[in-house]
Amino acid sequence: MPFHIGSGCLPATISNRRIYRIAWSDTPPEMSSWEKMKEFFCSTHQTEALECIWAICHPPAGTTREDVVNRFELLRTLAYAGWEESIHSGQHGENYFCILDEDSQEILSVTLDDAGNYTVNCQGYSETHRLTLDTAQGEEGTGHAEGASGTFRTSFLPATTAPQTPAEYDAVWSAWRRAAPAEESRGRAAVVQKMRACLNNGNAVLNVGESGLTTLPDCLPAHITTLVISDNNLTSLPALPPELRTLEVSGNQLTSLPVLPPGLLELSIFNNPLTHLPALPSGLCKLWIFGNQLTSLPVLPSGLQELSVSDNQLASLPALPSELCKLWAYNNQLTSLPALPSGLQELSVSDNQLASLPALPSELCKLWAYNNRLTSLPALPSGLKELIVSGNRLTSLPVLPSELKELMVSGNRLTRLPALPPGLRELSVYRNQLTRLPESITGLSSEATVNLEGNPLSERTLQALRDITSAPGYSGPRIRFDMAGASAP
C-alpha cells in the first residue's frame, strides 16, 4: 500500500478535532504512525507535530539533509520531556532518522543513501523518493550524493505542484533563503519571516517592498489577495497566487510579467523596463503602468476604470473601455486619440504629438494636454474645472465653462481671450499674442491670480490695468503684467 499522496493534503491550520477525523477507514500509514506517537506531544503541539510528520513522509521539492535534521529536531523540541529521546534526528552526521515507541520499536524512519534515495519506512510500508543533487545550473543531476551534506531536490513532486502544507512551503522558502548572496541574506531572511507569519495567521496581505530582493521564491502563500513587492531589484516574477486581487510591483527591473491571475482587480507596475504586457484579466479595474518601455497595449478589459500609461513609448492607444473614468497618457508618442468614453472624468495627454482632440465627454472635469501640437480645441464640457493646454499652437479658445477654476494657456498664439468665468481662480496666459483683454478679467475674485507677462498688450490696456489695480479699495484678482514691449495704443 503506497503512502497517501493525493491532492487532499493537510491545510495550513488544523484543529485538534480534525487531527482525529483525518484517520478515516482507509488510514494512510503515516496516520497509523501518528496514532502511536501523538501521545508524545501535548495538545497544543499536536497540530505542528502532525504537519512535521506529514512533511517527513512527503518530502517537498528542495529538501536537504539539513531540512530532514531540522524536522526531527523540531519533533524533539515539541515532545514531552523524556519522549524526545525516542526521536533520533541524525544530528551527528548519520543518514538514519527514526522515531521509536516506548518498547524501542521503530514507528517511523527515514534513510538517505549515497545514491540519492530518500526512503521512508512506516508501519511496514516503504516508499523511496528519488532525490538528485542540485547542479550549478539548477538542473537535476544523475550522479551520486557527495556524502551526508549534499543538497537534494525531490523529483517526485513536480515544480508546478504548489505546496500544500506549512512544512512544504517552509522547505522551499528555506532553500531560497540559504541561496541568497551575502548582500541579500538579511533581506531574504526577513521576507521568509513575513511569509511564515502570513501563512500561519491567514493574513491576506503580503508586503515585502523595499527588501533588497533580486528574486522571489518559487511559491508564495496561495491564499493571499494583496501582494506588494515594490522597490526591489526583481527581473522576473514566479507564478502568482491564484486568489490575487491586488498586485503592486513598481520600482523593479521587470521586462515581462507571468500569467496574471484571473481575478486580479488592480495592477500597479510603474517604473520598470517592461516592453510588453500579457493578456489582462477580464475583471481588471485599475491598471497603472507608467514609466515603462511599452510600445503597444493589449486589449483593455471592458470594466477598466483607471488607466495610467504615461512615460512610455506608445504611438497609439487601443479602444478605450466604456467604464473608463481616468486616463493618464502623458509623455508618449501619441499623434491621435481613440473615441473617449462618455463617463471619462480626467484626461491627461500632455507631452505628446497631438494635433487635435476628439469630442470631449460631458462628464470631463480635468483636461491636461500641454506641450502638444494643438491648433484648436473642441467644445468644452460644462462641468470642466481644469483646462491645462500650455505649449501648443492655439490661436483662439472656445467658450469657457462656467465651472472652470483653472485655465493654463501659456506659450500659445492667442490673440484674444473669451469671457472669463467669475469663479476662475488661476489664469496663466503669459507668452501669447494678446493685445487686449476682456473686461471680465478685473471682475475675478480677490483670491484669483492672473499672469499676463510676455504679451504685446497695447499701452492703453497696460495703463488701464495699472490704474485699476492700484486704485484705493481694489478687490479684484492679483494680476502680473509687464510694461516693457507694449504695442501701439
Automatic annotation (TrEMBL):
- InterPro entries xrefs: Leu-rich_rpt, Leu-rich_rpt_typical-subtyp, LRR-bact_E3_ubiq_ligases, LRR_dom_sf
- Report the SUPFAM superfamilies cross-referenced here: L domain-like
Cellular component GO terms, alphabetical = extracellular region; host cell cytoplasm
One Gene Ontology molecular-function label? transferase activity
Q: Which UniProt keywords apply?
A: Host cytoplasm, Leucine-rich repeat, Repeat, Secreted, Transferase, Virulence
Which compartments is it annotated to reside in?
Host cytoplasm; Secreted
The main location is host cell
The record's family statement is: Belongs to the LRR-containing bacterial E3 ligase family.
Q: What is this protein called?
A: SPI-2 type III secretion system effector E3 ubiquitin transferase SspH2
